[in-house]
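During the no-cost extension, the postdoctoral fellow (Dr. R.K.) reprocessed legacy sequence entries with the updated structure-token encoder. One reprocessed record is reproduced below for audit purposes.
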Amino acid sequence: MEDFNQSKKIIFLHASAGAGKTYNLAKRYISLLLSHNNSIHVKNIVALTFTNKAAKEMRCRIIEYLKQAALSINNNIFNELQLPQEHLSITSKNLLKEIFTCYDNFNISTIDSFKNHILKSCAISIGLSPKFLIEQDYSKNLLNAIDKFLEKNITSCSSSSIIEKQYLTQNLLRNVNWIPRKQIYNEIEKVFNKVSNTGKDILFNKNFFFAKQLCNKSLKILNEANKLSKLFLMNDNIDNIYSKSINAILQYKSKNIIIANIPKIFELGYRNILISKNNTQINIQINKSWINVNKYIEDYCTFYMKHYYDVYAKIYSNVIKEFEQQSKSDNVIFLSEINKKTVDFFQEQNMQIPEIYYRLSTQYKHFLIDEFQDTSYVQWFGIKKLIEECLSTHGTLFYVGDPKQSIYAFRGVNTDIFSIVKDSFNNASINTKYLNSNFRSSKAIVNFNNLIFSANNIKRFLSQVNNINQQSKEYKQFISTYKMSQQKNTLQKHYGYISMQMIDSNSNVKHILDCIKQKFINYILDILKRFNAYDIAVLCRKNEEISQISSWLIENNFNIETNQSLNIQHNNYIKQIISLLSFINTPSDKLSFISFLLGDIFRKRTNMKIDEIEKFIFQLNTLKDGTAAYHFFIHQYTFLWKNYFEDLFTKNTYMSVYSLTISILEKFKVIENFPYSKAFIMCFLDLINTFEQNNFGLKNFLEFFYCLNKNDNSLFIKGIFSKGIKIMTVHKSKGLQFPVVILPFLKLFILRGFQNPYLHYDKNGIKLFYINKQIAKFSYLAKKLYAGEKLKLLKTELNILYVSMTRAKYELYGIIPKLRNNLIPVLFQFNNYFFYGKKEHYVYNPDMQQHDIVVDKVNLGYKTIKLGFDKEHSTLVKNSLQQLNKIVLLKVISNLITMESIPTETDIENSIKKFSTDFSSGNIKYIKSKLISIFSLKDIFKLFRCSNNNIIYNNKNIVNSFGNIFTVDKLVISSNNLIALTLKLIYFKHHILQSLSKIYSDKKICLYFLDVEKVNLYKKCL
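Re-encoded structure tokens follow.
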């Protein structure tokens, strides 16, 4: 009981992977409820988790333990806690009654949900409606806020100075082509994303212009360099490398110095070393001037780093006011805003904790926090005062975490959070208990991970990585994280198996991918001799890798499960193909055309740069004559149009949607350029093929595709809902365990950079720095920050590797691409192939888990499409049925126009019966009425002229001189005239007319187009 002693106010459980943290949290919760003579109620305890799934699991576990206690069923947890048996059953029954009577008091939730609950209860105090909505996608509101700021900038002199005097001059110095609105949005979004994770204010210098100061510092360097150049001319004893470097600087003359072009001789480590040709003493004046040039260059680079983002910070401060005002008027708050609201609220001097308790109608006395390493500064700040209050009133804090499993740095999470707790409660002693027994993995896996992630191996690994400062704070924290990494194996049987395989990179990327694929499939086939498919988990780092693995498994007829959406409507490449098809269907659709141009498919095939496309869009938007987007494209890029677009429009007039899509895939080499997309494309082609069994036409297909329910089986890659091989990202696998784990792309990199802005914390807020490798060469401060940030990123990468390698229970497999920068071989210290342990057959009975997505396997078709739809979706159903009616009409008409004479009412009824399975019986009357009206049209009779001299064709193919084929639904040829009918409203009518006129040059030609919706025939003659 020592680690759960109630006299200890703060208890920290340092729990490595598989150490039973969830069990210990539940154990703590039960001990609080059952060992205090009913003095603690459910509403007095707050248990906070990282995910909703973990919260649900903990609630279920607590209730299960209480049920067992109420029914006097023995459980080890009660023996471990040494709880008195005489009152255990009665107390548990009362607690269950309390939970189920007022379930809202059962405070087990995610930390964000709890924090938002507090904010909602105090909404008025922070200027929000109590019924505010929480939204995730802020992009539209942020863009609108930027547009409003830019609009005001045109008319307001005060804000005009920000853009005209600062932003424009700053960017003009860089000599780049840019679109101001887009560039401002990109930078402001970066600032918004980074700052929203901190809850802090941005600090920036408001009283100077970046460009002006930069020019002044450039001038200072140039003046000193010019002075030094003259001294060099007077002394020919200086090595030529120095004079050449000075001359390179002087080439800028009156221009601003570009950091990337500063000669290497001025980098840190080179400076202050002047060498004479014959080792004679250097002139003091020359040496002093040389030192000054170096000092001025460092000052220039440090200034650039510190103040590059000042103008964006200033714009951001204006934009965020517009953003918040719009959010308030819409009665919404974005997740990114909540962090700032939280910090501001709890920083208020007049904010009283008892007032919050009063509003929440409860009193919190004990806090339990799971996955503490994933708690961000803002999340901690949101609950810190509540914890302070409970500790001051004899309450407790119990938190569980593992610095080695901190993998959410991109969310503002930092392992410094553990030291922040100590600093927050420096007067309270923290009782730390290390849980170093592994209840998850086999002995082989535990031993392997103990070896790889030992502190000694991590030290050795870091010593072999270049430019690691072993005296830095970041290095010491790195080593400290893995100080307590060794675990004991608790499983009785000494089983388990590890296999790691290197894939050499001497060949091209495609060959490496093929080798990985073959090795991966071989692993799967071997594992399935001992396990079920649902025992296997494949862990990847990127969604693209999940798509690739899914493709491989589906190609080999394996069922899969994945929590990544394999809905083809969400796939980026399918979206691009749909954009192109939409453009072909409607050439005036500017949005679809531009969307396709901006996509990977077009840019990869044509090698057209994104900057050039953006320039084209910018020029297009400046046109005032209403020129169509594709007309302007033809004018600007005639070669690209003729090679990639022109014939697709012709093919659309006679090809099926399936054949047209195949042409697009071949023309743009989609599968060849994007092998990860293969599974999605095959599923998309299957969908088209199914559609065309009973329907036709690109326009009809697009409407069909857009109207499909998002959970329709046909939209998902085959096998996603079966209990198959699990595929997920490492981040999604956190907290889970699997009998077998495969890591098909096992890589570890030192990231070569990080996304700016860099957040430099100050006691009053944060400053935005711009740091890159080049600046770090010339500034000591930049070098220190750059190296520290790279080490933090490496630690995050190593933590992700640790999480991925500790999920397996019995067998662990890794495939390692032997790439130049992949550090796995350095960390693992073996070549080519490694295996350890023994393969065995295991008895494994997994708990049945319910899928997040429930899909109706029975396809009832259009007749029952209204089932399950509420009023909100009635319009969608109505449109879907209208489209179906139109499709059926066209099918029936296609059948009837093949008759030799005009169809009678009986003919119409018989034809309707033939296709009656395609529509609901309630629409037969409507269909019949439409058909009678169509075949009563005056000109329709011309298509049924019975004469021995007439030649009649149905579904006639016409080929022009270029080899293009057009299909005409009906063709009537007489001695002097030719009448043709098409049921498709196509855009290139003149192609058919011209083709017919060349073939039948001696005849008058009339082409009819039938609009079934308006019951009208349109005629075009030559």
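The first helix runs from residue 21 to 34. The CA atoms of residues 450 and 486 lie 5 Å apart. The remaining legacy entries will be reprocessed before the final report is submitted.
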